[in-house]
Amino acid sequence: MIQHIDEQLARWEEWLRSGKTRLGYPGQSAFVAAMPAAGDQQNPLPDEEALHLCAAVRALDPVLRITVETCYRTLRGRPVKEIARALGCSRQTVHDRISRAHVHILGSLLDLAAGIPVPPYPDTPDTPPNRRTACPNDNRLPLRRV
């Protein structure tokens, strides 16, 4: 696992929950938005970085993308055993997938920083339209009941 990418994905999930995925006029003053809220431990993720993470997650293989979305969004903070049960795989497989996803995300972020566009992963014919992207908020993932 790449610690920096792990932290970025956790902040990305917070950014998605904040509802900043839409363009337009802000819901609050820029001065208020710049002030840290009570209990904030991390700085908020800048919109540009969050959008780069969205592109990087979209570029993942569907299996890795669903694993990332499950670990960081749907079942965030839950034990790996529970995540593995929801995904229908072993705990070691979850760890392996997250490690591979971190490597791919880091590569995509480096490409974006160098100005190389990162195309989304080509969808397979059996991928429903609402499963194709990680952004904006789409918390409905195909999971097994736990």
Structural summary, described in words:
With 146 residues, this protein is mostly helical. It has a domain of 94 residues. The protein has six helices and no strands. Helix 3 crosses helix 6. The radius of gyration is 16 Å and the shape is globular. The two termini are 25 Å apart.
How far apart the termini lie comes to 25 Å
- Radius of gyration in whole Å, from Cα? 16 Å
Unreliable stretches: 124-134, 136-143
Residues in β-strands, percent: under 5%
Structural class: mainly alpha
Q: Main sheet, how many strands, which sense, barrel?
A: none
Instruction: Tell me the total number of β-strands.
Output: 0
**Shape by Cα distribution:** globular
Into which percent range does the helicity of residues fall? Answer: 40-55%
Q: What is the helix/strand order?
A: HHHHHH
Overall mean pLDDT score?
77
- Discrete helix count: 6
Features:
globular, 52% helix, 0% strand, single chain, mainly alpha, 6 helices, 146 residues
Structure summarized in a few sentences:
The chain has 146 residues and is an all-alpha fold. 52% of the residues lie in helices and 0% in strands. The protein has a domain at 3-18 and 45-122.
